[in-house]
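Colleagues,

For the teaching module next term, I've prepared a clean inverse folding example: a structure given as tokens, and then the sequence designed for it. I'd like students to try predicting residues themselves before seeing the answer, so please don't circulate the second half yet.
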């Protein structure tokens, strides 16, 4: 993809593409049935999105994700953060 595409995304979201790509790489091959892994990912996405996550919300998200970890992607977590 061209640099301008990434610059536009960074400008609109305030999130660097390096952060997004690092997170995406960490998601590959991750075990989303493992609670520790899921909590780490939730915290990373929350930090990148600049969205605080209460302990209650994190617990709810972990329960939902570990129940069906095969269907997890970054969009799912982002939607959960936005719909809290």
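(Answer key — instructors only)
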């Amino acid at each position: 993809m061209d640099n301008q595409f990434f610059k536009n995304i960074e400008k609109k979201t305030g999130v660097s593409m390096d952060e997004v790509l690092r997170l995406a790489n960490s998601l590959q091959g991750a075990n989303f049935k493992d609670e520790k892994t899921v909590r780490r990912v939730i915290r990373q996405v929350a930090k990148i999105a600049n969205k605080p996550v209460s302990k209650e919300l994190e617990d709810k998200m972990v329960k939902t994700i570990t129940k069906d970890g095969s269907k997890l992607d970054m969009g799912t977590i982002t939607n959960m953060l936005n719909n809290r």
